[in-house]
Design brief:
The complex is a heterodimer of chains A (about 525) and B (about 400). Chain A is α/β, with parallel strands linked by helices and about 525 residues long. Chain A has 2 domains: about 240 residues, P-loop containing nucleotide triphosphate hydrolases (Rossmann fold); about 160 residues, 3-Layer(aba) Sandwich (Rossmann fold). Chain A has 18 helices and 24 strands. In chain A, the strands form 6 sheets. A 6-stranded mixed beta sheet of chain A has the order 6-9-10-3-11-12, with helices on both faces. Chain A has a 6-stranded mixed beta sheet with strand order 18-21-22-15-23-24, sandwiched between helices. Chain A has a 4-stranded antiparallel beta sheet with strand order 2-1-4-5, covered by helices on one side. In chain A, helix 4 packs across helix 5 and helix 15 packs parallel to helix 16. The longest helix of chain A is centred in the middle third of the chain and has 16 residues. Chain A is globular and about 70 Å long. Chain B folds into 2 domains: about 300 residues, ABC transporter involved in vitamin B12 uptake, BtuC (Orthogonal Bundle), CATH 1.10.3470; about 70 residues. In chain B, about 70% of the residues lie in helices and about 0% in strands. Chain B has a two-stranded antiparallel sheet. The longest helix of chain B has 27 residues. The N terminus of chain B is likely disordered. The chains are: A alpha/beta (about 525), B mainly alpha (about 400). At the A-B interface, helix 10, helix 11, helix 13, strand 20 and helix 14 of A face helix 10 and helix 11 of B.
C-alpha cells in the first residue's frame, strides 16, 4: 500500500434526517493530485466541510486519519494548524487590503502586535514568486482579476505551510490562460511535495493533472481509480458520476424555426462609472421564433453587458439603439417594462443577482411574475404553492419541499429555480447567461433539454456561454463578440471551436473608435 | 429525457397517487421561541409580584402604556425587513404631537381633524425621508439620523411656549379611554372576546379546509387544536381581566386592527412580498422587476404615517403635547423588532413577532416597576434582554446549519 496522507472512512453526515453523506471512503496518497468528481449535490462540498472542521468532530460519523494520526477537528483553525487549507470557489480575500496584507491576514508577521512590514512584504514577494504571480505585494486585491486573486489565495495557503491543498472548482471563473497557469502551478506544487485535492467539473482538466480520481454519487463513494490522459477515463468518470453511460452530451432536437421574433439595431452602451468607455458598440442582431442563438465571447467582451443593457437597461449608461419584437418597436427602460414586453434574463451570477437565498423555492419561482398570482395586489398563496410544486416536478428540482430555502440547494438545482422563475414569467424572448456555469454533467443535460423545449414552444432563446462546445452543440446560430462589437455570425453547420475562437479574438478592424 | 415546461399553473396540484408525500409544516421556532419567552416572563413576574402583574388595572395600563411602541414596531419591522433602519420615529412622535396640540388649541380644529392632520403630517415626513433614501440613495441610517435632529428641533420650535395641555376629552380618550361598559364584569368586553375567539376558530378552520381541498401541507390536527385552544384561552383571559377594570381600551382595538392589516400586507400582498424580496437579495429583486425605489419610498411613507399615529396616541395618553415626547421611542421600537426575531441583515421578520417583542419589553417594564426596581437598573436589564434575544437568534441560526 502506498503512503497515504489522508484517509476518510465511512463518513456519514445527516441534516435533520436527510443524509448528505452516506458512507464516503476516500484515500489520498502523499504527493498526488487527487480529483473528486460528482454531480451537484453529490456531497463533495459537504465532505470537504467535514474534513476541514466546518462541521465539527462529533457532528458526523466515520474516521479521518491525516498524516498518520486520527484527527478530530472542531474548526477550520484546527485543520489549518495541521496544514489542510481549502480554497473555496468564492474567494475570501479582502478587496481593500494589499496582496501582502491578505496573505498574512490572521497570521501577521508581528512582534507585540506591531506588524513588521519589511518582513511581510519580503516574504509576500517570495511567495508570489513561488506561485508565479508578478505583482507588487502592496497592490490592492481589487485591482487584480479573478485569476490572479486565485494565485494570491494559493500564496496564502503556502504561507501556512500547507501539506494538503483543497481547491473547490478552482477554474470555474477563470479564462483559459489563467486556468492553464493554475493547473501548471498545481503540477509544480506537486513537485514540491504538496498534495492537492481538486474538485472540478471539467474533465479535461482532471485528465491533464490528476493522478487519481474518486467519484462520489448521492453521498457515497462510487469508485476510485488512477487517471490517464485518455478519452476512456473521461467516459468512465461520467458514467460513474451519473450512474448511466452518457453517450450524448446534448439531447436531440429538430429545430422548427419561424418568423423573426426579436431584433436589436445599433445598440450602444457605456460603462456606468467610466462613462467615456463604450462597452457595447453598435451591436445589431436578431432571433427567430423557435431558434436558439448563441453569443460567444471571451471574458470582458461585453456579452453580459449587452444582455443586461437590453433587459430593462439594468447595466450601463447613455444607452442608445432600437429594439423590435414581432416587428413592432418596443421600449424597455426598466426591468419591469422588459418583463411586460416578454423578455427574460437569467443571470450568470445566480447567487448575487438571481435568487433570494433566504427565501423559499416558492417565493423565488414566483418572484418575476407575482402579478399573475395576485388580484388587487393580494397574492393567491395556494396557487403560488401549486405553481412552485408544478415546477419542482417539471424541472426535477431535487428538494424535500418547495418551502425549503433556495440557499440550501445545490448549484444545479438553484439554476433550475432561476429558470423556473423566468419560464413562469411567460416570456417570448429568453436570454440565458451562462446557464450551466458550475453545474455537473447530469444537470447540464437536463438544462439543455429545458432549453430545447423552450425553443420547441416557439420562444426565441439566446444563450451566452464561455463553453464553445456547449454553444456548438446547442445553438442554431452563433454570434461572436469582442471588445463590445459583433465580430462574426456563424451557422451551426459551419461552427467549430477554431473558427469561433478566431472571431472572438478578432482585433478591432474598421473605424470603431473609442470615444 | 424530455422536460415539460408548464406555462400556466393549473389550479389543482397534480398528486402522485398512492404516495402521500406531504411534508408536515415545521414549527417556526423563531416565532414560537419568542412567544414562549413572553409566557415565561409573564409567569416569572406574576410569581415575583405575587400576582400583582396581572391585576386588571395593571393589564389595562400595560396595553395603554405600550401602545406607542407596538405601533412603531409594526412600521419598524417593515423598515428592518427591507434592510433599513429608522432612527427618527421618536422625533416624529414629538413633532406630530405638537402639531396635533396646536391644531386643537390654537387653530381651533375639531379633535378628529387634528388627528387626521397629525397622521398626514407623519406621512409627509415619511415621504421626505423616503425621498432621500429611495430616490437619492442615501443610507436610511444617515437620513433618519438627520431626521431625528431636524424633527426634534421642529418640535422644540413649535412648542416654544412649553407644553400644550387641556386637550379635548375625545382626543385624550384615544390614548386612555375605553369602550362603554355594561355591568361589572363588563359584558361588552366579554362579548368582544367571544366574537374574536369564534372568528379566529372559524378563520383557522376555513384555511385548514382550503389546504385540505388543495392537498397542501398542513400541520397535525392535535397541534392545530392545541394552538387554537391556547390562543382562545389567552384572548378570553385578557378580556376577563379587562372586564373587571374599565372595559376594552380603545387603543386595543386600534392595535388589533393594525396587527391584522399589516400582517396581511406583509404575508399576502405583492407589496409585502417585495419587501421580503428586497431584504433577502436587493439585486435579485431589481432583476426580477421589483420597483425597488417605490417600495423603499412607500416603506418610509408608511413608517412616517404610523409614527404620526403613535404621536397621536402618546399625546392623547399624556393629555398634553411636550417637545420632549417620544425621546428614545425609536430605540424601544427597534429593540422590539429584533427581540421579535427580525434579522439584522434584513429579509426576515414578522409583525406578530415585533408586537410580541414589544410586549416582552412592556412586561419587563411593568414587572420591574411593580417590584420598584430602580429605573437605572431597569435599563440595564432591558439592554441585556435585547442582547440575549438576538444572541439566541444568532445561535439557533448557526445550529440549524450553514
Amino acid at each position: 500500500m502506498t503512503d497515504s496522507i489522508l484517509t476518510m472512512k465511512g463518513i456519514v453526515k445527516d441534516f435533520n434526517g436527510v443524509k448528505a453523506l452516506n458512507g464516503v471512503d476516500i484515500e489520498v496518497a502523499r504527493g498526488e493530485v487527487h480529483a473528486i468528481c460528482g454531480e451537484n449535490g453529490a456531497g463533495k462540498s459537504t465532505l470537504m466541510k467535514v474534513l476541514s472542521g466546518v462541521y465539527p468532530h462529533g457532528s458526523f460519523d466515520g474516521t479521518i486519519t491525516f498524516d498518520g494520526k486520527d484527527v478530530a477537528y472542531r474548526s477550520i483553525n484546527d485543520s489549518e494548524r495541521d496544514g489542510i487549507v481549502i480554497i473555496h470557489q468564492e474567494l475570501a480575500l479582502s478587496p481593500y487590503l494589499s496582496i501582502a496584507e491578505n496573505i498574512f491576514l490572521g497570521n501577521e508577521n508581528a512582534r507585540a502586535g506591531v506588524i513588521d512590514w519589511n518582513k511581510t512584504n519580503l516574504e509576500a514577494s517570495r511567495l508570489l514568486a513561488r506561485v508565479g504571480l508578478d505583482e507588487n505585494p502592496a497592490t490592492k486585491i481589487l485591482e487584480l482579476g479573478v485569476g490572479k486573486q486565485q494565485l494570491v489565495e494559493i500564496a496564502k495557503a503556502l504561507s501556512k505551510q500547507v501539506k494538503l491543498l483543497i481547491l473547490d472548482e478552482p477554474t470555474a471563473a477563470l479564462n483559459d490562460d489563467d486556468s492553464a497557469h493554475l493547473l501548471d502551478l498545481i503540477n509544480h506544487l506537486r513537485g514540491q511535495g504538496i498534495t492537492s485535492i481538486i474538485i472540478s467539473h471539467k474533465l479535461k482538466e482532471i485528465r491533464r493533472i490528476a493522478d487519481t480520481v474518486t467519484v462520489i454519487r448521492d453521498g457515497s463513494t462510487i469508485s476510485s481509480f488512477p487517471v490517464e490522459d485518455t478519452d476512456d477515463i473521461e467516459t468512465r468518470i461520467i458514467r460513474d458520476m451519473v450512474g448511466r453511460p452518457l453517450d450524448r452530451q446534448f439531447p436531440d432536437r429538430t429545430p422548427q424555426i419561424g418568423e423573426e421574433k426579436f431584433r436589436v439595431e445599433h445598440w450602444n452602451a457605456y460603462h456606468p462609472v467610466d462613462t467615456t468607455r463604450k462597452v457595447v458598440d453598435d451591436v445589431s442582431f436578431s432571433v427567430k421564433a423557435g431558434e436558439i442563438v448563441g453569443f460567444a465571447g471571451l471574458m470582458g467582451a461585453g456579452r453580459t453587458e449587452l444582455a443586461m443593457s437590453i433587459f430593462g437597461r439594468s447595466y450601463g449608461t447613455h444607452i442608445t439603439g432600437r429594439m423590435f419584437k414581432d416587428g413592432q418597436e418596443i421600449q424597455a427602460r426598466t426591468v419591469d417594462e422588459a418583463i411586460k414586453h416578454g423578455l427574460a434574463y437569467a443571470t450568470e451570477d445566480r447567487k448575487r443577482y438571481g435568487l433570494n437565498l433566504i427565501g423559499s423555492i416558492t417565493v423565488n419561482v414566483s418572484a418575476a411574475a407575482l402579478g399573475k398570482l395576485a388580484k388587487l395586489g393580494i397574492i393567491d398563496r395556494h396557487r403560488e404553492y401549486a405553481v412552485a410544486e408544478e415546477y419542482r416536478r417539471a424541472m426535477n428540482i431535487r428538494t424535500s419541499s418547495v418551502s425549503a430555502l433556495t440557499g440550501r440547494l445545490s448549484g444545479g438545482n438553484q439554476q433550475k429555480v432561476v429558470l423556473s422563475k423566468w419560464i413562469y414569467s411567460g416570456p417570448d424572448v429568453l436570454i440565458l447567461d451562462e446557464p450551466t456555469r458550475g453545474i455537473d454533467v447530469g444537470a447540464k443535460y437536463e438544462i439543455y433539454g429545458i432549453i430545447n423545449e423552450l425553443a420547441a414552444q416557439g420562444k426565441a432563446v439566446i444563450v451566452i456561454s464561455s463553453e464553445l462546445p456547449e454553444l456548438i452543440g446547442l445553438c442554431d446560430r452563433i454570434y461572436t463578440i469582442a471588445e463590445g462589437r459583433l465580430t462574426g455570425e456563424v451557422a451551426r453547420a459551419d461552427a467549430s471551436q477554431e473558427n469561433l475562437m478566431r472571431y472572438m479574438t478578432a482585433a478591432r478592424s474598421e473605424g470603431a473608435t473609442k470615444s | 429525457m424530455t422536460t415539460t415546461t408548464p406555462e400556466t399553473a393549473r389550479t389543482t396540484v397534480p398528486t402522485e397517487p398512492g404516495k402521500p408525500r406531504r411534508p408536515r409544516l415545521r414549527i417556526d421556532f423563531r416565532q414560537y421561541g419568542i412567544l414562549a419567552a413572553l409566557a415565561v416572563i409573564i409567569i416569572l413576574f406574576q410569581i415575583l409580584t405575587e400576582g400583582r402583574l396581572l391585576f386588571p388595572g395593571n393589564v389595562n395600563n400595560l396595553i395603554q402604556q405600550n401602545a406607542y411602541v407596538l405601533i412603531l414596531a409594526i412600521g419598524m419591522v417593515i423598515v428592518i425587513i427591507a434592510g433599513h433602519i429608522d432612527l427618527s420615529v421618536g422625533s416624529i412622535v414629538a413633532v406630530v404631537g405638537a402639531i396635533a396640540g396646536l391644531a386643537m388649541q390654537q387653530w381651533g380644529l375639531p379633535w378628529w381633524s387634528a388627528v387626521l392632520l397629525a397622521v398626514l403630517a407623519g406621512a409627509l415626513i415619511g415621504a421626505w425621508q423616503g425621498f432621500w433614501v429611495a430616490f437619492v440613495g442615501i443610507p436610511a441610517f444617515i437620513v433618519t439620523l438627520a431626521g431625528m435632529l431636524v424633527f426634534r428641533g421642529f418640535a422644540l420650535v413649535l412648542l416654544t411656549g412649553g407644553t400644550i395641555s387641556g386637550l379635548p376629552r375625545e382626543f385624550n380618550a384615544i390614548g386612555s379611554g375605553a369602550l362603554p361598559t355594561v355591568g361589572m364584569p363588563d359584558l361588552v368586553t366579554l362579548a368582544i372576546g367571544a366574537v374574536v375567539s369564534i372568528a379566529l376558530v372559524a378563520q383557522q378552520l376555513r384555511t385548514r379546509a382550503t389546504l385540505r381541498r388543495l392537498d397542501l401541507p398542513r400541520e397535525r390536527a392535535v397541534s392545530f387544536w392545541i394552538k387554537i385552544g391556547i390562543a382562545v384561552a389567552a384572548i378570553m383571559y385578557l378580556c376577563y381581566l379587562l372586564s373587571y377594570n374599565r372595559g376594552t381600551p380603545i387603543i386595543l382595538l386600534i392595535l388589533a386592527a393594525l396587527i391584522l392589516i399589516y400582517s396581511f400586507v406583509l404575508n399576502r400582498t405583492v407589496f409585502g412580498r417585495h419587501v421580503y424580496a428586497m431584504g433577502g437579495n436587493l439585486f435579485a429583486a431589481q432583476m426580477s422587476g421589483v420597483k425597488t425605489r417605490w417600495v423603499n419610498f412607500m416603506i418610509f411613507v408608511n413608517m412616517g404615517l404610523l409614527a404620526g399615529l403613535a404621536g397621536v396616541v402618546s399625546t392623547a395618553r399624556a393629555g398634553s403635547a411636550v417637545a420632549s415626547a417620544g425621546s428614545s421611542f425609536e430605540l424601544d421600537a427597534i429593540a422590539a423588532v429584533f427581540i421579535g426575531g427580525a434579522a439584522v441583515q434584513g429579509g426576515v421578520g414578522t409583525v406578530v413577532g415585533a408586537v410580541i417583542g414589544g410586549l416582552v419589553m412592556g412586561v419587563l417594564n411593568q414587572g420591574l416597576s411593580i417590584l420598584s426596581v430602580d429605573a437605572a437598573w431597569q435599563q440595564v436589564i432591558k439592554g441585556l434582554v435585547l442582547l440575549l434575544a438576538v444572541a439566541f437568534d444568532v445561535y439557533s441560526k448557526r445550529r440549524s446549519g450553514r
